[in-house]
Backbone:
């Protein structure tokens, strides 16, 4: 190992150590500046990527959790927009969060929000696509998800909690802790989180897997004979869910 | 390209003001890593900005002073940002921040030895070969005294310019902070820099903090530029002539108008130094 390598190895260990080993006062002061800058920078980056978690638990609680996370899982690259993808999983096992079971689920929505925000651009399938198209043509159409589209199934009323915290409502929220589904999509750069009912979510999964709209509708109808295809399709399209690229018929 | 004077570090919070700014000689600098994303609003803002103003790309993550070579995938991403924004300047730091698989969001010190010089020169060569252009290398803010230096910072930087053909980005606040925290005289430091290699100047603010009873200046980019730094800046451009000069502010963000007034002050000093230069030449 070269001396530069040795120096950097020792320095990195000091940065990530819970407490500094005893060194001279001047060195200790300097090392504290580096440690504060790095830990502060990482906690800020994590807070920027998980704003709803910060809102729910407050800055102090978040900082304590983030300090532990950043020390054990520092970023693997300098692009901080992608830092902390394992933070939701960390929260699920973080002992102080055990009585907040919805927290890691809400964090996962924040994570998908950030993924959607930074995803590649592509032309969005416009609502007008449904006009002037015959029923048969529509049923045999396969739609492709926009690169910024994400979806997920969440526990503990996480979607309702996430949406409530983004509407800046002062009102009390009462939740029943049920399973919920959400669509995360992007319209003109703005990321939208949309509550989906189970049948809409199942329909979207079918479309995503490459089924025609007719096949996806059949699956949905087999679960609920009153599945409203036109309404669901219109809801998904207006949320920017699909791309105009590669529409296969 | 029209003659560029002073620019501002671009903050998305100021997007609308930044895009409608009509100051003569204006340009913006971006942190490369914030635009290493596939698409969305960040890229849309960069596109709009680079359509109207010259862009300088300032990297913070290449870790040129690592014992290891630069991360090739990161270097490719940097190249994409540089090409996408049609950058007129590309800069990085004389510092390291990557250790194996861990990245630290800071600019860390190292002993300036012959061995480090070889490593940094090699890394700058690699980066310049991939980017196919000259890099400007910025002097870091220092907090830690090391007894193992074999080179002064100015000699080290000068030698790097000689070996690799890189240029220098002189951060005057960093010189002010480092000479206070470690040792040396800021005016002497400026006198020792190789004039022709200097391609850009940074100006920023700092704060004073006490750590373990020791007063340390922290380069936090979160305060107005202090009078001493302005004086050092005037001293430098009087010696070397005008250079594109950036007002850096990343924290405790004031209004765009406040930043613009600092920027206009720098632009005025640049114009004055040009006039003085003409008087000398004439």
Residues:
């Amino acid at each position: 190992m070269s001396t530069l390598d040795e120096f950097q190895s020792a320095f990195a260990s000091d940065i990530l150590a819970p407490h500094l080993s005893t060194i001279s006062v001047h060195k200790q002061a300097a090392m504290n500046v580096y440690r504060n800058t790095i830990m502060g920078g990482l906690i800020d980056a994590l807070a920027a990527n998980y704003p709803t978690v910060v809102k729910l638990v407050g800055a102090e609680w978040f900082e304590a959790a983030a300090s532990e996370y950043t020390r054990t899982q520092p970023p693997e690259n300098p692009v901080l927009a992608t830092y902390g993808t394992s933070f939701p999983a960390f929260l699920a096992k973080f002992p102080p969060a055990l009585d907040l079971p919805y927290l890691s689920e809400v964090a996962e929505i924040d994570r998908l929000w950030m993924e959607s925000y930074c995803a590649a651009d592509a032309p969005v399938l416009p609502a007008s696509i449904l006009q002037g198209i015959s029923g048969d043509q529509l049923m045999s159409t396969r739609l492709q998800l926009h690169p910024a589209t994400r979806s997920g199934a969440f526990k503990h009323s996480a979607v309702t909690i996430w949406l409530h915290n983004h509407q800046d409502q002062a009102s009390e929220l009462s939740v029943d802790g049920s399973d919920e589904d959400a669509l995360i999509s992007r319209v003109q750069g703005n990321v939208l989180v949309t509550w989906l009912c189970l049948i809409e979510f199942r329909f979207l999964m079918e479309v995503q897997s490459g089924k025609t709209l007719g096949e996806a509708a059949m699956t949905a109808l087999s679960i609920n004979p009153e599945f409203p295809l036109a309404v669901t399709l219109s809801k998904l399209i207006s949320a920017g869910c699909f791309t105009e690229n590669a529409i296969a018929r | 390209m029209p003659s560029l004077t002073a620019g501002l570090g671009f903050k998305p919070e100021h997007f609308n003001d930044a895009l409608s700014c009509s100051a003569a000689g204006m340009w913006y600098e971006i942190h490369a890593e914030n635009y290493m994303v596939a698409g969305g609003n960040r890229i849309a803002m960069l596109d709009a900005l680079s359509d109207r103003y010259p862009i300088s790309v300032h990297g913070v993550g290449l870790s040129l002073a690592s014992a290891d070579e630069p991360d090739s995938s990161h270097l490719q991403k940097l190249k994409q940002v540089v090409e996408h924004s049609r950058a007129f300047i590309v800069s990085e730091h004389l510092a390291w921040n990557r250790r194996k698989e861990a990245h630290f969001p800071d600019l860390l010190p190292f002993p300036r030895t012959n061995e480090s010089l070889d490593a940094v020169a090699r890394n700058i060569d690699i980066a310049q070969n991939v980017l196919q252009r000259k890099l400007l290398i910025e002097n870091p803010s220092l907090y830690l005294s090391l007894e193992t230096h074999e080179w002064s910072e100015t000699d080290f930087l000068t030698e790097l310019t000689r070996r690799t053909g890189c240029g220098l980005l002189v951060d005057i606040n960093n010189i002010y902070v480092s000479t206070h925290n470690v040792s040396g005289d800021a005016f002497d430091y400026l006198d020792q820099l190789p004039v022709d290699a200097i391609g850009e100047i940074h100006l920023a603010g700092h704060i004073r903090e006490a750590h373990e009873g020791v007063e340390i200046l922290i380069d936090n980019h979160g305060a107005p530029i202090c009078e001493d730094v302005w004086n050092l800046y005037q001293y430098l451009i009087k010696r070397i002539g005008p250079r594109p000069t950036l007002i850096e502010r990343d924290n405790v963000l004031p209004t765009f108008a406040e930043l613009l007034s600092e920027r206009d002050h720098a632009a005025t000093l640049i114009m004055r130094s040009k006039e003085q230069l003409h008087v000398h030449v004439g």
